[in-house]
User: Fold this.
Amino acid sequence: MATMKTGRRVAVIGGGVIGVCAASWLLRDGHDVTIIEPGGIGMGSSYGNAGCLNASSVVPMSMPGNLAKVPGWLLDPLGPLSIRWSYLPKIAPWLLAFARAGTPEKVAHQAAALCPLLQDSFGAYAPLVRDANAGHLVRRNGHLVAYRTKQDFAGDALGWKLRRDNGIGFDLLERDALWQQEPSLSHDYALGVFIPDNGHTTNPNQLVRALADAFQRDGGKILVAGARGFALAGERLVAVETDAGDVPADAAVVAAGARSRPFTVELGDAIPLDTERGYHVIITDPEAVPRTSILDAAGKFVATPMDMGLRLAGTVEFAGLDADPDWRRARKLLTLGQRLFPALRDAYVEERLSLWMGFRPSMPDSLPVIGPSRRSRDVVYAFGHGHVGLAAGATTGRAVADIVAGRPSELPLHAFSPTRFK
Ligand SMILES: Cc1cc2nc3c(=O)[nH]c(=O)nc-3n(C[C@H](O)[C@H](O)[C@H](O)COP(=O)(O)OP(=O)(O)OC[C@H]3O[C@@H](n4cnc5c(N)ncnc54)[C@H](O)[C@@H]3O)c2cc1C
Assistant:
């Protein structure tokens, strides 16, 4: 794809899925675009996620009734939630805001806002994926949510109502129909919900890297450096300061994932970004290969067939950006996976396992922050996608390009405003 360099100089801070997608759309608008990334492209949260590109992920994390479940989750050694108690004082305000976000009215609003961000994930990625020759990394073959009991399913009624209200189609599968849909599944699971329009990538890191390779091929630049802040002349951006010197820029995008907060503080915005740490374990040459990605509803983890093996990904750990990983959380995912798929072995040699921990960039209201900063409209925020950043990547990137161009965006942006926090 040939682009003319007639636009502005745009610096994109962060080479995760959000930064790379934003950079790709900005390049298409004819801007002179530089991604500033200190690590490898797509090596942050975008590396180890469950790969789901699910329009059905409109259900926010803080749901009515969840608070009552927290003690049980924390006490269960295989539970989906853990907290490093030393981090509690720091994250307490975030947790309070999270709890407050979980009223029936608010979750209906959040789901309606997430719907246009996620509903056309495949359509929004399509031009980027096509130009990057990355079609082999994307599968639109559905997604299964597996329940052990009908009571568990009934407990999620509000989530399914939110999906139905937002136009998500799904099929209920009981026993034989469920096991026919997914032969690798344990018969301890009695009920499933199949969402045909969903899908996944078989390698999230490769997908982001393929998009970044196409971006470079078409004239985009990648600077291996950490961004430190902004040089402003009044309200106008002059440069992004990095540890490799200043990058002159007329506009900048903050897409540093869970590490975006210092940039917002510098620009005078009080944005409650924190991190929900997540883990994965990959079994190479797995004995069970599901047809689609599967969410274990009670375990709150996803099993996805990927190019490198079976990835079991999930859990939420509140421990901030600095604490060491607790690898027991990843190993617990293996135990849960063995319950989901009876064909998996009881034990694996370490060589067949690969463990990972990453930082979801998470907002208490489950909505990302997409919009200009308070101090300078030249700096656009695009972070805080929590559990849905991969699915929302291309749509977010397109909206960022709209904001930089000053044209109306197809994506309603009001709910994602950086100024929505008191
Ligand atoms: C276990 C797990 C499972 C998940 N499953 C899914 C899923 O199935 N589907 C889905 O849609 N989402 C999923 N997610 C969420 C998804 O991975 C994230 O929302 C998404 O990757 C966020 O992308 P990002 O680009 O904002 O952040 P990142 O991918 O973290 O990228 C941010 C980048 O900014 C860089 N950076 C940091 N500081 C600086 C600086 N000072 N200067 C320049 N660059 C900097 C970092 O090095 C990093 O590369 C999952 C997450 C986890 C942890």
Notes: Confidence is low (pLDDT under 50) at residues 1-5. The CA atoms of residues 82 and 128 lie 37 Å apart. The longest helix spans residues 389-405.
